[in-house]
Write a structure and sequence with these properties.
The protein is an all-alpha fold and 404 residues long. It has a two-stranded antiparallel sheet. 77% of the residues lie in helices and 1% in strands. The N and C termini lie close together (8 Å).
Length: 404
């Protein structure tokens, strides 16, 4: 294999954590993980009120959901640069503070602040999302699977909290939508305070992981994994951005709509934990692709155009499916790579390109809703994304490895 330029490996360095109990480190990781989704899931329940108050069009509302998702992929590429300069632990601390800043900016009032704060918050989330898996691998080498599962579950819990508690907190405290969004800066600051002992006096990482090789970008399997990662992410962010608004349009009050979205987000944690464990036991994961893609197909379309009497059941199916899709996408990145270096390269490609592609989904749903005035066309668009995700997932789930 040709020699390629190296850049810092987030997972390779293992500075000591003298005096820090593994339980404390784990709790710190869970607090950080919890804060990686409320910034994204808290906007959807408030979107009907924001549109009514500001006159925000469907296209711009779709952009409000789309731009942060795009930032996850774009700014995640800055994580290696930050790690090289300050180390992974200080990098997480810095990103948490930036996240709190972005959440605070969203509450200053007006659409420019809302968009700017959302970009700042999403940029921080993208950076932390790239760094954290390496920290898990470094500090819990013998329990990486367990910690990854717990990390994913807390991430889903944070998404559920953002979807379910934003509107009730707004009503209880008598806040406008700006203040309700600003509230989520508080747990981010708590996480930063809890992470501070881990970031103080830590050595900078040494050693390196390779830059993505040209061979990987020419490998059809790598693009199949990337496409599945991006399409299943698009399914999730369409739900985060538009499910509460759709339910309100269909007759639910805004609190009930937020609770349905919260139940769906909370259910994601179940299969996000189960699917990776079971799918990794077999060389071929195609049956799991069929299962996890079918569930959100039925669940979301049922919520958009089905009888509202079954809304809670549809929400449960939707959440289980999205959690299974996310867990399976991460699992395929590992299983389709032949060695750790290939896994690192494939992960960077799949998440960087995948999240950028995923950003189109919420934007297109906003345009479809504006153009049609209802939710039938967005439901058809969601079905098309599901079928596309299933098609690429079936290709990516075959027992092969990428070539680098």
């Amino acid at each position: 294999m040709r020699t390629i330029e190296r850049e810092p490996d987030i997972a390779a360095a293992r500075p000591g954590r003298a005096g820090l109990h593994p339980v404390l480190i784990g709790l710190g990781l869970m607090l950080v993980a919890f804060n990686l989704r409320p910034a994204l899931s808290s906007v959807g329940p408030l979107l009907p009120g924001i549109r009514a108050e500001t006159g925000l069009s469907g296209a711009l509302a779709g952009a409000l959901v789309t731009v942060p998702v795009l930032c996850l992929g774009v700014f995640g590429r800055l994580a290696p640069v930050l790690v090289r300069r300050v180390g992974p632990d200080a990098g997480v601390l810095a990103a948490l503070l930036v996240l709190a800043l972005g959440l605070g900016v969203r509450g200053l009032g007006g659409l420019p602040s809302l968009f700017l704060g959302s970009v700042i918050a999403a940029a921080a989330i993208g950076i932390v999302g790239v760094i954290l898996p390496g920290i898990v691998k470094r500090d819990f080498p013998d329990r990486a699977g367990l910690m990854t599962g717990l990390y994913t579950a807390l991430l889903c819990l944070g998404a559920a909290a953002g979807a379910g508690f934003t509107v009730p907190a707004r009503h209880a405290l008598g806040l406008g939508w700006e203040g309700a969004l600003m509230l989520w800066a508080a747990p981010a600051l708590v996480a930063a305070a809890a992470w501070l002992p881990f970031a103080r006096g830590r050595d900078k990482p040494a050693g390196g992981a390779a830059r993505p090789s040209g061979a990987l970008w020419r490998d059809p399997l790598a693009w199949q994994v990337t496409a599945f990662m991006g399409l299943q992410s698009s399914l999730a962010y369409i739900v985060f951005g538009w499910l509460p608004a759709a339910l309100v349009d269909r007759g639910l009050d805004i609190v009930a709509a937020g609770l349905v979205a919260s139940v769906s987000a909370l259910a994601q944690g179940v299969l996000a934990l189960v699917v990776p464990t079971l799918a990794a036991r077999r060389p071929d994961q195609r049956p799991w692709v069929v299962l996890v893609v079918s569930l959100p197909l039925v669940g979301f379309i049922g919520l958009l155009v089905g009888p509202l009497a079954f809304a809670w059941g549809f929400a449960l199916l939707l959440g289980l499916g999205l959690g299974g899709c996310f867990g399976l996408a991460l699992t395929l990145i590992v299983l389709r790579a032949g060695d750790p270096r290939a896994a690192a390269e494939l992960s960077a490609m799949a998440q960087g390109v995948g999240y950028c592609g995923a950003a189109l989904g919420p934007f297109l749903v906003g345009i479809a809703h504006d153009w049609s005035g209802g939710w039938g066309l967005p439901a058809a668009l969601y079905a098309a994304v599901c079928l596309s995700a299933g098609s690429f997932g079936l290709l990516a789930a075959r027992n092969r490895t990428v070539r680098i």
